[in-house]
Design brief:
alpha+beta; 10 strands
């Protein structure tokens, strides 16, 4: 089945994004690139922003004060299970861990390859010594190896890792991100320091 693509233009800056319908969800098919305070571009190179968008800490993309990268933001189940728009444009929001799990369940039910391979882009990945293939991009998600920016200022995994934030907090220093690397077919949810800057995909409100 061919992916069902569309476009969305963020009225705040005029940036037009490709979107894709996957099951009952509609996702950005490229990384978010909204220039907000604190966001960074991988190695500060224009060509990286064009390809990978911008990287955000968890507090920044959630629209919280930066101190929430080191403090508990949610204290009730109602807060933990809420939908958060954060820095997303109206009509879109930061995906939760549960929404990523929904995406995985659907892709696993239709894809010919493992979830990570089905999501990863066909180009832009550095191969490991064994020549591990980049991706099949079966559902049009086009996961890009945008890398991450560490709190110490170091840039890591450009061309080697795709890592995307969720709105789901674990504790005062961790939140859940989903991602995978060039060296395998897995694409999983894992706790990550909130102070790291990662890429972001948005999902449409339902």
């Amino acid at each position: 089945m061919e992916p069902e693509f569309s476009t969305f233009t963020d009225p705040r800056d005029g940036h037009t994004y490709r979107t894709v319908k996957i099951g009952n969800q509609e996702w950005f098919a490229e990384n978010f690139d909204y220039d907000c305070p604190g966001s960074v571009v991988y190695e500060n190179k224009t060509e990286n922003e064009t390809q990978y968008g911008r990287l955000y800490t968890w507090a920044e993309l959630m629209g919280f004060d930066g101190k929430m990268n080191d403090n508990v933001a949610f204290t009730t189940n109602e807060e933990r299970n809420a939908t958060y728009r954060g820095i997303a444009p109206e009509g879109w929001h930061i995906p939760s861990d549960a929404e990523w799990k929904e995406l995985k369940a659907y892709v696993d039910s239709i894809a010919d390859t493992e979830f990570g391979t089905a999501l990863k882009s066909r180009k832009g990945w550095k191969k490991d010594p064994d020549g591990c293939p980049a991706g099949a991009d079966e559902v049009g998600f086009n996961a890009l190896p945008s890398g991450r920016h560490m709190p110490n200022g170091e840039y890591l995994y450009g061309g080697k890792g795709a890592h995307f934030w969720t709105s789901t907090e674990v504790d005062k220093v961790y939140a859940i991100r989903w991602g995978g690397t060039y060296a395998g077919e897995e694409f999983t949810g894992f706790r990550t320091y909130k102070a790291q800057a990662l890429a972001l995909r948005l999902v449409k409100d339902r």
